[in-house]
Design goal:
Largest sheet: 9 strands, mixed
CATH superfamily of the largest domain: ANL, N-terminal domain
CATH architecture of the largest domain: 3-Layer(aba) Sandwich
Number of domains: 2
Radius of gyration: 23 Å
Number of strands: 25
Number of helices: 15
Structural class: alpha/beta
């Protein structure tokens, strides 16, 4: 192997394997991998991929469920100099074809039950559970011993969630992700002694790059689950096998609403991480009341920055439950106006970033890249307020702010108020076209028990100025979300705006 700096994504695993070869790195189902075994599997899988006729720089899609094979496939791409393209396993039809085609993926790693969803012309390789799968070929493959990738080589295209527009592939280098791993380790207090469980989709950057890879870097033992199943999570916590959990607010809400949430012994859970979308303050208050010794961390960011940008630590929550914290180790952040000038503390504006964690732009989208990267800073599209102590509070997405009668209304403020009503299980507030108000503040509510539109509007008016209270309430069985838990407000606007 040619000499290299080792500052690569797969180098993170290699160092841990040399440091603690016999420690268990990953448990998935009935399979268990030590660090030495996992590192060897990655080298063999890299050879398998290159034997498919691929060359460094080629894009390889990954369209599969959570598994140890999914992780091995990603790390094998990194070691072989290939560009990994994670694809939401819930996508089908045109949405799926768009990402595979736009990325130029010449091969897609997939699970057998998903392969039929892919376009006929796409070449596939099963990850597992099939003859000739990636896992099936490891034993007969020769470990890869070729050149190391360069730190500035692309390693992944992270497609944005597409909540407001077509997804864009953020071009991530090895260097960017390794910087992000160190930021996560330091800001989130990750250590080899933690017992993390990873249940959110690995195609999503938060679970993979904020938790699983950083935990592999420090040498922890990681449990991978197929999905965030409450019974399985509670069993692992009660058995002492899991003490660290990341989940978006929608999952924490689901866990808190379970009938056994108040009776199961969850005292073994030491670290609770939330993020990927805004946590309603009333929900966080209920969780903290039930588990007063649990250390809560708020993680905020977006795909383009790897994705971790700011963290609110356990000792920083008091008096600022709505804050997303301060920038992590390798992130510089400002709040600016439309002209890119700093706004005074306490004034809302757009968050902009400068960081070695940032992507190199959007794959094959020069206009979108130029619009997002201006004057040396990345423009996030998030509205926030910074206080005098450097803490940021996200007000809304720029595109989700509601113009009600010429006055701007932050949807989050209205949502937090509605969450204090016992009849609201979940809520999303959007603006809909209105002849009088320009946009009418509209609440889309998943009810808990019996509750009426008038009751919710009255409740909001008791706590908010009338112009911020909903003009209309729609009831639904569930809110549309992507797999990371973000509510797809674009779909709600399309559905109820007609």
């Amino acid at each position: 192997m040619t000499p290299g700096h080792g500052s690569t994504v797969d180098g993170v695993l290699r160092r841990s394997a040399r440091r603690t070869p016999a420690r268990v790195a990953v448990d998935y189902g009935e399979r268990s991998w030590t660090y030495e075994e996992l590192d060897d599997a990655v080298s063999r899988a890299a050879s398998v991929l290159l034997d498919q006729g691929l060359a460094p720089g080629d894009r390889v899609g990954s369209y599969g469920h959570n598994s140890d094979a999914y992780l091995i496939g990603f790390l094998a791409c990194a070691r072989a100099g290939l560009v990994h393209v994670p694809v939401n396993q819930n996508l089908t039809g045109d949405d799926l074809a768009y990402i595979v085609g736009q990325s130029g993926s010449t091969l897609v790693l997939t699970d057998p039950d998903l392969a039929g969803q892919l376009p006929d012309e796409v070449r596939t390789l099963p990850l597992r559970n099939a003859d000739g799968s990636l896992l099936d070929r490891l034993a007969s493959a020769t470990p890869y011993d070729g050149p190391e990738p360069r730190t500035d080589d692309l390693v992944q295209l992270l497609y944005t969630s597409g909540t407001t527009a077509l997804p864009k592939g953020a071009m991530m280098t090895h260097r960017a992700l390794v910087h992000e791993y160190l930021s996560a380790i330091t800001a989130l207090d990750l250590s080899a002694g933690d017992r993390p469980v990873h249940s959110l989709p690995l195609y999503h950057s938060a679970q993979l790059h904020v938790f699983l890879l950083p935990y592999l870097a420090v040498g922890a033992t990681n449990i991978i689950l197929d999905a965030p199943d409450g019974d399985r999570l509670f069993d692992l916590i009660e058995a002492g096998r899991a003490d660290s959990l990341f989940a978006p607010p929608t999952v924490w809400i689901g866990l808190a609403n379970r009938p056994d949430f108040g009776t199961r012994d969850l005292s073994g859970l030491r670290k609770a991480y939330y993020g990927a979308s805004i946590m309603p303050v009333p929900v966080l208050e209920r969780l903290r009341e039930r588990l007063p010794k649990l250390a809560f961390y708020n993680c905020f960011g977006q795909s383009e920055i790897g994705p971790l940008a700011t963290v609110l630590g356990p000792d920083e929550h008091k008096g600022r439950l709505d804050s997303c914290g301060r920038p992590v180790l390798f992130v510089d952040a400002r709040v600016v106006d439309e002209d890119g000038k700093d706004v005074p503390d306490g004034t809302s504006g757009e968050i902009v970033y400068r960081s070695p964690q940032l992507c190199e732009g959007y794959w094959d989208k020069p206009e979108e890249t130029a619009a997002a990267f201006r004057d040396g800073w990345f423009h996030s599209g998030d509205l926030a307020v910074r206080d005098a102590h450097g803490f940021f509070t996200v007000v809304d997405r720029v595109k989700d702010v509601i113009n009600s009668g010429g006055v701007l209304v932050a949807s989050r403020q209205v949502e937090d108020v509605l969450y204090t009503h016992e009849g609201v299980a979940e809520v999303a507030v959007i603006g809909l076209p209105d002849d009088r108000w320009i946009e009418a503040v509209t609440a889309i509510v998943v009810p808990r028990g019996e509750v009426t539109e008038a009751q919710l509007i009255d409740h909001a008016r008791e706590k908010l100025p009338h112009f911020k209270a909903p003009k209309r309430v729609e009831f639904v069985d569930e809110l549309p979300r992507n797999a990371s838990g973000k509510i797809l407000k674009r779909e709600l606007r399309e559905r109820f705006g007609d």
